[in-house]
Amino acid sequence: RAQPAGGADASSSDDAHRGSRPADASVSFDADALFAEMRCPTTPAADMATAMHTRDDRERGPPRNRFQDVWVWAGRPEWPAIFAAVRNQRQHRDIGVCFCGTPAIGHDLAAMCRQHSSPEDDCIFTLHKENF
């Protein structure tokens, strides 16, 4: 079993860092906690749309997979659910989708933008991408 720096057991390290996280997600976090979550994500991507639109719990703090503006997910994003959630909670007609990455994901995002855009409903998703 792989061990993080310092020789601690991975599960105890994860719990220790998560337990010490501040309740306010805008406050700094321990880089070791982010690293531990990135090594072994605990939150399924299927929960992405719901979790990203849920306020932080004041008693328990931010979700275990949230580190300020960084979210860590296990698995592939559920694009239809994410686009539907954004569309349902939008405050403006135009919604920009920014992406930098592989062309295959850009292709999927372009398809989602077309599928979820509707001039009749006054909702337009526009993909802004850069491929590498």
Annotation keywords:
5 helices
Protein model, in words:
Residues 1-23 have low confidence and may be disordered. The strands form two sheets. The protein has a two-stranded antiparallel ribbon with strand order 1-2. The protein is globular. It has helices at residues 10-19, 31-39, 48-52, 79-88, 103-116, and strands at residues 66-67, 70-71, 94-101, 124-131. The relative contact order is 0.13. It has 132 residues and is of the alpha+beta class. The chain is 36% helix and 15% strand.
Low-confidence stretches: 1-23
Helix content: 25-40%
Strand order of the largest sheet: 1-2
Overall residue-averaged pLDDT value: 76
**Shape descriptor:** globular
Number of strands: 4
Number of helix segments?
Answer: 5
Secondary structural class: alpha+beta
SSE layout and pairing:
Layout: H1 10-19, H2 31-39, H3 48-52, E1 66-67, E2 70-71, H4 79-88, E3 94-101, H5 103-116, E4 124-131
Parallel strand pairs: 3-4
Antiparallel strand pairs: 1-2
Helix pairs in contact: 1-2, 4-5
